[in-house]
């Protein structure tokens, strides 16, 4: 009989490393691709250096390679490389600014217009029932890359917040990013998917 089984006995601490590989009743969904995000693989060492900024680098690449859905005059739409939900877009100004109050009137207007169009396109392509829209301003507010403002456009469907993210800390994303980018680009007004 262990001390934990004895009345008034101290519970025995077991080293979790002794149980690695031992089967239990927990089902696991492994998502090793998330380690790139957790480890900060694509995060700039100097967030204020626009040469390192992924939101500045994206527009210098081909749309397919950068996952850009639409290019406007002063802002653009790009798929989130680490989506909260399938079809998660980011709307970014080209200019490397961190705070919403730093945007010009033209940038404010185009970020708003691209956001509106993105919602229409996402509804047409994937039947989204709702959206979460927002900007995390500053690291303390949750911005992964706080130095370059970006607005999240996250499509939502009834039942999409199931047990996986809550219990399994896993997201099921049923479509590849490249396929999502192509469908959105083709559906964008005036878009051709190129």
UniProtKB/TrEMBL annotation:
> What InterPro entries does the database record attribute to this sequence?
AP-4-A_phosphorylase (IPR052908), FHIT (IPR039383), HIT-like (IPR011146), HIT-like_sf (IPR036265)
Q: Where is this region: Disordered?
A: 1-26
The molecular function terms in GO held by this entry are: hydrolase activity; nucleotide binding
HIT domain spans which residues? 54-163
Secretion signal span = none
Histidine triad motif, short sequence motif: residues: 148-152
The UniProt entry, under PROSITE patterns, shows: HIT_2
For this UniProt record, the keywords arranged alphabetically read as follows: Hydrolase, Nucleotide-binding
The record lists substrate as bound by 80, 152
Catalytic residue positions: 150
Q: Under what name is this protein listed? A: HIT family hydrolase
């Amino acid at each position: 009989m262990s001390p934990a089984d004895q009345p008034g006995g101290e519970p025995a601490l077991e080293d979790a490393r002794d149980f690695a590989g031992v089967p239990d009743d927990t089902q696991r969904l492994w998502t090793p691709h998330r380690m790139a995000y957790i480890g900060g693989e694509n995060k700039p060492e100097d967030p204020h250096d626009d040469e390192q900024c992924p939101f500045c680098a994206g527009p210098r690449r081909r749309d397919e390679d950068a996952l850009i859905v639409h290019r406007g005059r002063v802002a653009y739409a790009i798929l989130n490389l680490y989506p909260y939900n399938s079809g998660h877009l980011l709307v970014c100004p080209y200019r490397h600014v961190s705070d919403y109050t730093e945007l010009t009137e033209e940038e404010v207007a185009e970020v708003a217009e691209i956001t509106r169009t993105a919602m229409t396109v996402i509804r047409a392509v994937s039947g989204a029932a709702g959206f979460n829209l927002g900007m995390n301003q500053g690291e303390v507010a949750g911005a992964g890359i706080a130095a370059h403002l970006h607005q999240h456009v996250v499509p939502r469907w009834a039942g999409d917040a199931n047990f996986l993210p809550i219990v399994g800390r896993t997201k099921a994303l049923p479509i590849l990013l490249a396929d999502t980018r192509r469908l959105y680009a083709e559906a964008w007004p005036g878009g051709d998917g190129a």
